[in-house]
Amino acid sequence: MNPTEPIDGVETARRKRAWYGLLGRNMQFTLDLSVLTTAFALAYLLRFEFSIPAHSLHHGIIQLVYVVFLQFSILFLSGIYSFIWRYVGMAEIGSFLKAAIWSLAILVALRLGLPSKLQELRIPLSIILMDTIFAFGGVLSLRVMRRALYERYEKLERATNGHGNGEKKAVLLIGAGKAGVHAAREIQGRGDEDLDIKGFIDDDPVKGGAVIQGIRVLGTTEELPELVESLGIDQAIITIARTSRRMITRIVKICESIPVKVRIIPGYYDILDGSVSVSSIRDVEIEDLLGRDPVRLDEEEVGRFLSGERVAVTGAGGSIGSELARQVARLGPAELILVERAEFALFDVHSELVRKWPGLSVVPFVGDVTDEERMRALFNEHQPRIIFHAAAHKHVPMMEFNPTEAVKNNIGGTETLGRIAGEMGARAFIFISTDKAVRPTSMMGASKRVAELVAQCFDQAYSCRYVAVRFGNVLGSAGSVIPIFREQIKRGGPVTVTHPDMVRYFMTIPEASQLVLQAGAMGKGGEIFVLDMGEPVRIIDLAREMITLSGFKPGEDIEIVFTGTRPGEKLFEELATTEENVTKTRHPKIFIGRLAPYPEAKVREALTRLNLLSKGDSSSTLREYLNEILPEARLGAGEEPAGGPLLEGADTK
Questions:
Q1: Are residues 189 and 152 in the same domain?
Q2: Which of 446, 509, 568, 602 has the fewest CB atoms found within 10 Å of its own CB?
Q3: Verdict on whether the full-model pTM lies above 0.70
């Protein structure tokens, strides 16, 4: 094969597309000029009741030339010809209205301003008004007709290709606001969807009985059972752009009691950026029920903190690290350095960020935070000024089996990176901690608590601002309860829960990451920030809800089995203790735990001892020492964890 053939083929296709595009534009120009000419002639005919005097006909022919030229020029200058008219919408109609107003104003000004000796150029006001309506209404109608024909053609083509030939499902759209209208338009405009919209459901009394997008608002959510039965509804789709967890839960409960399948469209921000489509309608997932109202950031404060700065994120391939990187990227840093030791995870997040923010300098940096030589290379090469330290071992039972690794990574990595940041004059160091650092019963929690003390110690020793941010479980993070339950349900069960009284706090990954940025921006140094996690959730309730949302009955289709608490686990996690004197900040979801820092000498002595113990093989000695330096800790000194599955049961952070 000639290696130039594919290139030639691509070039030929490109030239064909360009030729067709030119042909289409020329045809549009011709049609528009025809409409503008016809509109002016019709206005003249109506003005003189289809009997134009000879002298007026002469004037009309002269006026026709410059009026059509003026109107066509205004259309061109208004950007009308840059629109893709098969997607014509309200924004494009607004541009037409502006063009019409400009044309009308100019022609009226000429009519009133031209001297009487230029009588042949002075168009009667009645003709100007009629011509403006006919001309701009006509060219707009051409485009509306083009969109209608395009959608009809697309619908027929999809049907011809074998899509959408099955029996349509009767659906109700719950929510007749912006998102509902958008979803209805998407469904109606596609021929391959198997959805037949029977009506809207909306609790707003003002909308009752209204017809929106040709679809009637049939009633409220309280009337769902009767409407589902009378109309033979197969599915109810939640199409509310911005709603609370409580509202979604209430709707889901109503639908489950009928019963009718309930689905949902994506969230608020997906709707705002226009990414909602019929293909995005999905089953309601447990994240929808656990999620809360979107976080309201002080964008100005966070923007001042990060914009134009060199920012490093450690653990950038993980759940929290990758989301922190996304949030930082949108705020315009001078450079974003992704620090990660897992090569493939780093490749994924780096590829995503480069694609989404092509103008941003994104540096993939392979390295382990415990490797001092490599971390010094990071600062020497890229000089990050703000560091978000998310790299950690987080799996509670796994760290009970490997306590020395928890100490090496979570404590040693924080000490190494934090010390270098201080020595190199970084501006801020934000350490990601956990609720398990409060009265720790696990090696993971204890290692994070010591790392908090390290951050407070360094805040006293260096000019860099060191803060820690604590939060609980994030929805869907690797190794956490929701992905585990989902996989168990997929296998047909059983779903394993460690204890019937086990409860956990949950928040979404974007919410946690945004609050970390906010805490980092407002931190003065030395604080341990505590994020408001909302209400705790019983793990057994979570398991039942996930089974139900998957279309099964708990205890019948899929069993729930209690396996007993695992090494290091608590039944109830805390975010702070009464001794920590938690106080409010100006952000309603961020609090400060004002713990007095340990003396610097004591922290450095503890680091030296822990470094030595982590190189040994005595887990019991390591636990004993952590209990000694953390009086609030309750580690099982001298106890080795029993064997057993690590990835089953309740949350693992």
A1: no
A2: 602
A3: no
